[in-house]
Amino acid sequence: MEKISFKKTYSPLNSEEIIAKQKAMMDQKRFEHCIGVSETSKKLARLNNYDEDKAALAGFIHDYAKQIPNEEFIKVIKEENFDPDLLNYNRAIWHGIVGTYFIKRDLKIEDEEILTAIYRHTTADSEMTTLDKIVFVADFIEPQRSFPGVEEARKVAFNNLDEGVGFELAHTLDFLVKNRQKIYPKTLKAYNKWAIKNN
To answer: Could you give the CA distance from residue 189 to residue 124 in angstroms, rounded to a whole number?
Structure first.
């Protein structure tokens, strides 16, 4: 893995401070996953004429809140006026949506495009920016991921970012349905927008 650093952090904190804060928030495996997502985000940005450094930063911090205790998520949802329906879900959804609160608080990042990409990376949405799509897909196909179909997912995503989003959503919904798990409404809307094939 290449050494992580960012030319611009969109924060009063420098690159080394952001990396140190993130490393303190998670175990080594999660940290390495974030590096993988950062590198994959950079690659997808290059393929889609997007700012590689900004994509790399958003990809790196996407899971900043992943290992925060549930009690802390619940407290923030209740006290910071998040949609109360979030209480019917869990950290799989929370670490993106509510994670933006912790990123603003701890990393001092206020850039709306970065925050929105992190907000949407756990659910997707019917409307997604290029950065939203990059982080969403990079999280799914980064080099450490290994699941049936991951090579196809990589091939699709590197060829066409929108199709990569659709592939991931179809895979995610298939998993949720097979396991009889609750589907977040925005994820269903995103599936209907990005994953339906027009035959």
So the answer is: 9
Under a CB-based contact definition with an 8 Å cutoff, are residues 109 and 103 in contact? Answer: yes
**Which pLDDT belongs to residue 197?**
81
Low-confidence ranges of the chain (pLDDT < 50): 1
What are the tens digits of pLDDT across the range 153-170? 999 999 999 999 999 999
Which pTM was predicted? 0.95
The domain segmentation of the chain, as residue ranges, is 15-147
Distance (Å, whole) CA 193 – CA 199: 15
- Residue found by looking up tokens 């209480």 in the block: 87
* CA 30 and chain centroid, separation: 13
Q: Where are the alpha helices (DSSP H) in 86-160?
A: 91-97, 99-102, 112-120, 130-141, 150-159
H helices, E strands: number in the chain: 11, 0
Give the residue among 74, 67, 80, 69 at the shortest CA–CA distance from 22. 67
Distance CA 75, CA 53 (A): 33
Q: What local confidence, expressed as pLDDT, does residue 110 receive?
A: 97
CATH class of 15-147: mainly alpha
